[in-house]
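Hello,

I think I submitted the KE4 job twice by accident. Can you confirm which output corresponds to this input? Input:
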Amino acid sequence: MIYKRSSALFAEAQKVIPGGVNSPVRAFKAVGGDPIFVKEAKGAYLYDEDDNMLIDYINSWGPMILGHAQADVVSAVIEKAKKGTSFGMPTELETEIAALAVSMVPNIDKIRFVNSGTEACMSAVRLARGFTGKDKIIKFAGCYHGHSDAFLIQAGSGAITFGTPNSPGVTEGTAKDTLLARYNDLAHVEEIITQHKGDIACIILEPVAGNMGCIPPVAGFLEGLRKLCDAHGILLIFDEVMTGFRLAKGGAQELLGVDADIVTFGKVIGGGLPVGAFAARNEIMDFLAPQGPVYQAGTLSGNPLAMAAGYAMLSTLNDRPEIFSSIAEKTEYLHQGLEQALIENSVTHTINRLGSMISVHFSETPVRDFDTATNAASGDAFKKFFHNMLGQGIYIAPSAYETWFICDALSREDLDKTIEACRKASKDIA
Ligand code: KE4
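Support: Only one job matched these inputs. Its output is below.
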């Protein structure tokens, strides 16, 4: 495949945008080469600036669960735009999408909309600190909750990719209040709680990690966190920016049967427009301004176009819950095919999967936390795999620290083409 125009556009972009991109992981730094510039997308397919058609397994990093340019979402945004694009005043649609989200997700009475997953997680932690009166938080190495200072302490996603787990610009003062635990290691969490007894406001985690590749929780991990939080007066925050409205109507809480105290959302909830949200039971959410003392605000929060896209997306998922099992089945089919192709070519690998989240790791040991994910990502195998798949028209995340996202627009033929491409790519790695 030829990427001449993308490369030319990238050269231009780098003159006026830092690194030529508006989010680092798009820059292909982890895999080398120039990023692909997309012109348009429809269903499961991307059409790039060199007129290549690519099967998309990134789906805008999760939002495009129904596929790109889904008719209901597009028409909702077009119709809404004709009536104005932003008011900075309450609108009925915000109440409608809030009520719909509350009806779909267990354990929440109220939800506050913001403009990104970062804002949602940042606000959720501030709310937890305000509600409990405590300062410290526990996060997990390799989990990514957006780029606010408190989280850039061995974050996942792009932060890991660049090997800068503690970003410059994050002060010692901030870092001291973020305690780092190993994912899937309950004993380590208990040890940290004992060391900081009475000082911890919340534990925040991705209930299914998607920023170290896909890493499901081991049996008992989430349940154990729930028990520790109950025993020590700590709030449990599920960062469901990826898993929310993807793993099930009620996200990971529903699928895995563990209750969080605060849940954050992004990606799918906005239908591809900039939306984040955080939600909890009344006694916690009523601590938020203007009702309570914890301040949080946003000019474009609840923006009518974003709410229209999100409402169309959530309504579709609410009306057609079979979509969740459909994308999970597609992901299982893909898993089996990829596994067979890699085994046929004696490629050392492990594949992690849960629901419609899946990732391929070139590692002989199971990938269950930051360290094992990092070991698996070392070496050139992933880079070779990525570029070989791209050359065959399969667009997976340009980093070993990301999960693939399966959308409902993928056909069996698309999946078979992906499996065949993997069979060819694995010859290159073996
Ligand atoms: P945003 O601020 O990017 O909307 O959301 C931050 C965030 C929070 N929590 C989780 C679990 C997330 O995965 C994310 C963002 N995900 C990355 C992809 N791994 C976004 C891609 C990017 O940074 O460009």
